[in-house]
Amino acid sequence: MSKSRNVMAATAQNVTTTLRRPKLRGVVALAALAVGLVGPALPAHAAAAPDAPTAVVATPSGTSLSVAFTPGSTNGASGVSYAVDCTGTGPAGSASGSGSPIVVSGLGKGQTYTCTVTAQSDEGPSAASDPSDPEQLATTAPGAPSIDGITLGSSSVTVDFSAPADNGGDAITGYAVTCDSAGDHPAPVSGAGMSLTVGSLVTGDSYTCTVHATNGVGDGSESAPSESFVAATAPGAPSVTSVTQINPNSLRVAFTPGSDNNDPITGYRVTCTSSNGGITRTKSGGDSPITVTNLSNAKTYTCKVVASNSIGNSPASNASDAKPAAVLPGQPSITSATRGSNSVRVAFTPGSTGGDVIIDNTVTCSSVDGDNTASGASSPIVVGSLVNGDSYDCVVVSTNHLGDGPPSTATTVTAATTPEAPDIDGVVQGDNNVTVSFHANGTG
After folding, report:
1. Alpha carbon of 197 to those of 51, 161, 218, 263, 409: distances in Å?
2. Whole-prediction pTM value?
3. In degrees to the nearest 10, what's the CA dihedral of 379, 380, 386, 388?
4. For 39, phi and psi rounded to 5 degrees?
5. CA 158/CA 396 separation, integer angstroms
6. Please, what is the Cα angle at 103 between 100 and 109, to 5 degrees?
7. How far is C-alpha 32 from the chain's CA centre?
8. How confident is the model at residue 438, as a pLDDT?
9. Pseudo-torsion of CA 277, 283, 287, 290, nearest 10°?
């Protein structure tokens, strides 16, 4: 203990001698004592090279390997990057990068490789990782796919195909379809699916299509060409030429086709739409005319026509003239038949118009000597040129645009004329009167 105190006193004496501040000798001695007890400061821990990466996995793609890994501890190192070295049965390859994965390219087709990863830093490199499992690279580009069928669209074609039997030893990354005609060479269409559509074809041109597959090595060979086809579109619009009323409540629509646009027209669809509350009706058929039935009685309709082919539907035609849906007129009723001179005046009450307008009424009076007829827009109608004394059965028929309605119930009448003049047989004078005797010559 005495020796320790002497040491500290000596140390304090040395400090105070150096500072040459006698009045602070005690304070400095205490500071010096504290320094002596704590000791000098320790230096900071030095950085070291990184640890080796682990879990190295190499994935082939064509003539490249994508190398994934788990970095080791950096150990405080700065400027850390990674270097990959791949060696095997073909030319060696290497690449570097800032992290996982790193792609090593330019390796040998069909060759087998293992890869190691080393961390690089300003403090030096790590040890190399354990090597990856061996991986064999693709040998060739894929074989040719097989075209299964084509489907025409509007100035387009969809090509369905099957994968090639041989992928060249590498996963197929996509396909490309090329369609060519003598005068048109649209750009190929690429995609990963097994069905691709090539558009913007020239309507009327004849095309064939091929397809090839692609893997990491490159493009495979083209398939055998598809069957030849002519690019087409949906038909042109038809033109309505007439609409005829048909009994009952039907319209017969006649039309001329538009262009088939290089694909045969397979059918037509007529749609009749009412402007005043009738039910819309549609009817399909293979040719003109097409009759649309079950329309709403007395409602007015216009009709349009659409053509179809395997591509799609045409635009609608022009609208037809407006026509009412109707039935034949109803049965009239005769109210009187008045004889005239070799004639009969027939009065009647019309039946229903059938949803159309009555355009004529016809009275027919029939006897053993034949028929006599007369027509008119309304009641009454006089039928002349009858045979005096003949008995006639008279009926009335009303007509609209669809045709003749049913006849009325018949009324029988005998034709006659005014009587002939009688002959006077004698005159007897009386008282302020005269008596005339005569005889009739005919009843008329």
Report:
1. 53, 12, 22, 18, 72
2. 0.60
3. 150
4. 90, 170
5. 67
6. 145
7. 95
8. 67
9. -50
pLDDT digits (tens, 9 = 90+) for 394-416: 999 999 999 999 999 999 999 88
Q: Which three-class secondary structure state does DSSP give residue 35?
A: helix
Amino acid at 88: G
In the numeric block, which tokens belong to residue 114? 């293992």
Rounded to whole angstroms, the Cα distance separating 210 from 196 reads 11
Q: What is the pLDDT of residues 257-269, one digit of tens each?
A: 999 999 999 999 9
Q: In angstroms, rounded to a whole number, what is the distance separating the alpha carbons of residues 412 and 434?
A: 42
Which amino acid, one-letter code, is at 379?
S
Place of tokens 């009723």: 333
Measured in whole angstroms, the distance separating CA 68 from the mean position of its chain's CA atoms is 45
Contact 179, 208 (CB under 8 A): yes
Q: Which two tokens stand for residue 356?
A: 């159309």
* Cross-strand partners of 234: none
Q: What is the pLDDT of residues 216-258, one digit of tens each?
A: 889 999 999 999 999 999 999 999 999 999 999 999 999 999 9
The CA distance from 367 to 388, in Å, is 11
